[in-house]
Amino acid sequence: MSTQLRKIAAKAKQDPKARFTSLAHLLTPEFLRDTWRQLNRKGASGIDGETIQEFETNVEERIQDLWRRLRAGQYHAPPVRRVEIPKGNGTTRPLGIPTVEDRLLQRAVARIVSAIYEPDFLDCSFGYRPGRNPHLALKALRDHLVTGKVRHVYEADIQGYFTHLNHEWLRKMIALRIADPVITGLIGKWLNAGVMEHGVIARPEAGTPQGGPISPCLANVYLHYVLDLWFEKRAKKDMQGEAYLTRFVDDFVVAFQYKRDAEHFDRTLTHRMEKFGLKLAPDKTRMLLFGRFARERAASYGGKPGTFEFLGFKHVCGVDAKGKFGPGSPCRPLSAPQNNCLSH
Predict the structure, then answer these.
(1) pLDDT tens, 310-336?
(2) pTM of the predicted model as reported, rounded to 2 decimal places
(3) Burial class (CB in 10 A: 0-12, 13-18, 19+), 250
(4) Residue 32 contacts by C-beta under 8 Å, 6 or more apart in sequence?
């Protein structure tokens, strides 16, 4: 992180209610150049067909031109190129590919926005954050299951999350911390830029296309307010027992001590999501018996403890080599022939 971004992050941490009114001056040729060095060189072409390698042949001139247009307020966000990526279950996931220039600017703005919001984000959030990854999310979940008084797990799936983010709500959330008209204006342009598919441009009234560097950042901001803060500051106050949230972007699970807390959470979460234009997928959202005593409790009525999936792994109740409960770090992804990571 650059010195300027460190200062912004420090101020954001020191004053959680501070609104940053002057940020556009950070978008200098030097900052754009530094951002370019961090950019993924394997990205595909946008609607203009220009490759990373072609942009790089005269990168200094392109950065200077981009900077001049930014200063003059003349930057126009182009639509993203939509492609369908197979998900492995017979369905596809829409991906939006920005042009190389737009990707560079998105990444630069995302660095600024992340510096402000990173001190705000809670420990339960792991996706697309510096120093955090799926392995740490899985470890945190394991710690909750092993050391906490967990008896039930709530597995949730947000239906088409990236395509349903409400623009009006997102702008309000961003405005809580960022009041620089250039930065908020650029974010607005990206939200309204639309997508091109088969030569036709569509401008959805909701969502932020996956594929651009700004998208994961905005997605984290949205669920920070919709889910994380609400869970920690409001929902947990109504619970009688322990409860733990683990989230990786839009993929999350909640571990509960008491079934009644999980059931109440299910009811309130549905209304909470609807308020912000989101919907839980009913066929992928469920509550199950899980934890160190799940086998014994399930056996008492002739059943078996449940299993759930999180970040590409199947989690099962079992014991380790010493006979102790421990879901552990799952040892094989779901695509593997066998998914049990425990000794049974």
Answers:
(1) 998 888 876 555 556 556 444 344 333
(2) 0.89
(3) buried
(4) 63, 66, 67, 104, 105, 108
